[in-house]
Amino acid sequence: MLLWMTLEKITGLHAEHIDKHPIYTNFFSIPAIAVYVFALFDKRKTNYNGIMTYKQGVMSGMIITVFVTILSPVTQLITSTIITPEYFSNVIE
Q: For 16, phi and psi rounded to 5 degrees?
């Protein structure tokens, strides 16, 4: 996420091209979903011998979600204070 935010900052999506930010920021969902899918495939292969029940998949997905939820505020803080502190003032303008 931090790398993505840095790329958005470098390409001007947090300043001069902020009007295009809502469009391009949605492309982050592609690698984010891929990480979830590959993590669940790996979990199935390594922990469940290639066979995972629906319940096991949901529980594994919930664990990943909790981990991401815990790290999300830290990522937002780093983005808002270090990577692009002027973002919110640019949005307001």
A: -70, -25
Task: Report the residue count for the chain.
Answer: 93
The pTM score is 0.75
- Exposure string over 9-22, b if 16+ CB within 10 A, otherwise e: beeebbeeeeeebe
Question: How many domains does the structure of the chain reveal?
Answer: 1
Six token digits for residue 61 = 């997905």
Per residue in 15-48, pLDDT tens?
999 999 989 989 999 998 999 999 999 999 999 9
Q: Give the structural domain span for 44.
A: 2-92
SS3 at position 74: helix
Q: Is the pLDDT of residue 78 over 90?
A: yes
